[in-house]
Design goal:
The chain has three helices and nine strands; from the N terminus they run E-E-E-E-E-E-E-E-E-H-H-H. The strands form two sheets. It has a five-stranded mixed sheet, with no helix packed on it. Strands 1-3-7-5 form a four-stranded antiparallel sheet, with no helix packed on it. Helix content is about 35%, strand content about 25%. About 10% of the residues are buried. It has about 210 residues and is of the alpha+beta class. Among the domains are: about 100 residues, Immunoglobulins (Immunoglobulin-like, Sandwich); about 45 residues. It comes from Taeniopygia guttata (Zebra finch).
Length: about 210
């Protein structure tokens, strides 16, 4: 006996919905944009029924707001200046042909703009402004780097010179054990201390020569 293949249970609200385009832009001065086509794709093995909802349904006319899967025509029927820049939303709900619950949904943004040419000009101006800003930023970074290089190549620091003088003075002091000296006894240095001073003086000399 052949076992019938059981279709997996579909969870409400989790079915992916494929719609093109995902955003609708209308231009007030271009009537050809007042009517746009919204297409719903059905890649599944079962039939889909749909329902189109909207946040402002009085502003739009939707051909076949419910029914089977086919291209959907949405017409903007209330072109007013007060609606310029206002973002509306369409929600497209889909469900299996034999069920009433919505298995998936997709939201599409709709915006009315005053002019396509004006929008293009604003886009070009924005791109130009960004390019100018980037050019100024690169030039500004280069001018900041130059003073730092000059400071680094101006010579050894005062601390380096001071340590060098201290090491030279330490080497000139008498060694511990010398009796015939006018220098106080607490300023007499041991051989190890003078070796350390000589080593540090050598390092300082290398630093000065590199700068």
């Amino acid at each position: 006996m052949q076992q019938q293949k059981r279709q997996p249970e579909l969870v409400e609200g989790n079915l992916p919905v494929f719609v093109f385009p995902t955003e609708l832009i209308f231009y007030a001065d271009d009537q050809s944009t007042h009517k746009q086509v919204l297409t719903l794709y059905n890649p599944y093995e079962f039939a889909l029924k749909f329902k189109v909802l909207c946040t402002t349904p009085n502003k739009y006319a939707v051909v076949d707001a419910t029914g089977a899967v086919k291209p959907h025509v949405i017409r903007h029927r209330d072109v007013r200046a007060s609606y310029y820049g206002v973002i509306d939303k369409f929600r497209l709900q889909v469900s299996e042909q034999s069920q009433r619950k919505a298995l998936g949904k997709k939201e599409i943004i709709a915006t009315l703009l005053p002019s396509a040419k004006e929008q293009q000009q604003q886009k070009e101006e924005e791109e130009k402004r960004i390019k100018e800003h980037l050019a100024e930023s690169v030039f500004f970074e280069q001018t900041l780097c130059q003073p730092e290089n000059r400071t680094a190549s101006s010579g050894p620091s005062l601390l380096t010179v001071f340590l060098g003088v201290v090491c030279v003075a330490a080497l000139m002091l008498p060694t511990l054990g010398e009796m015939e000296s006018l220098v106080p006894l607490y300023l007499h240095l041991s051989v190890n201390q003078k070796l350390v001073a000589a080593y540090v003086l050598g390092l300082i000399t290398m630093v000065i020569l590199r700068t």
